[in-house]
Amino acid sequence: MHAKYDPKQHIQRVDTPPRSDEVFDQREITIQSYQTTVPFDYEKLNDGLESAWLTPQIRFGVFHRSPSPSKVECTVVLGLQDKLSIRAYDYDTRRPIWYNWMDAIVDTVNIRYFKDENGLVRFTTTGGGRRITDERLEDFNRIFLGITKDAVTKRQFDLERLRDLCFVRFVDRLYMVRFSDPSGEEYRSIDHALFQSRKYIRPDTGRLKEVRSDSKVKIESFDSDVNVRCDDLSEEIQVRFFIKGLSGSLRLRFPRLSYVCQPSTPEEQADIFYRVVDKAVSAILDADYYTQKCCSLEDLDFLISTGKSRRFPENDIAHF
Fold first, then answer.
1. pLDDT (mean) for 234-246
2. Which of 51-55, 88-92, 164-168 has the lowest mean pLDDT?
3. I want to staple 101 with a disulfide (CB 3.0 to 4.6 A). Which of 36, 84, 215, 218 is the partner?
4. What domains can you pick out in the chain, each with its CATH number?
């Protein structure tokens, strides 16, 4: 018979963790932009956010606020409190055992509310995770800020600018390109409407040259990467990004971050991480790449199929 397993002989506490387990490290996050029909009122927004700090009763609320240099924007990090399950293993009974870490902040999302050129509220969301759903964000905006669901429209990327971004700025660094013909169908002269590679796609590849030379082809999404430097990080990082024109989303995948000075609090870590995110977004989008008018699903279908705007027929797809 084997001697009974003694965990103390095999499990030892170490003073320095072999790796860091910060909430924000090695995350894949999504940036979305939203337009509202609600007039921007800084005092109302500020009061609403001040009433939304996390408490035992407010499970999804303000975790951290960044100071605003002016009264034309408000920036917050919202935290979702939930139960975090931790799996261990009982070698004596040969079965897994579970522990619950109660009231942990399991997901965060950064939101910047600001005044657009028409004096209305526009906001961008960064991050979120799977547990912070659209419904949670809609409820937060409605309950604390008085912004209802029907007053909000998710913004789309301008397809002409997206094409330029793909075939000019990042043509040497493409991993994937998804495209369609003007009717929204697969591009018939090429085998597939999705062209991807594990390494950079050579710009002189025949299929890519064919797509690039046809001005009528719509670029719906593409993947690439960008190098990012930030004073808070000890080294330059490479950020992989996935840009989807028809959904208006920009997804970023970060490597593990190495800080110049390790943040000592979750709030400090949030500040640094979202500064790095801002640097990455600025390195990718250096201008307003979103359409300037709001599209409904029906408008978008009509736009893709005809190249014309149904509500604004004087504008073609290049100006919509």
1. 93
2. 88-92
3. 84
4. 27-154 (3.30.310), 159-289 (no CATH)
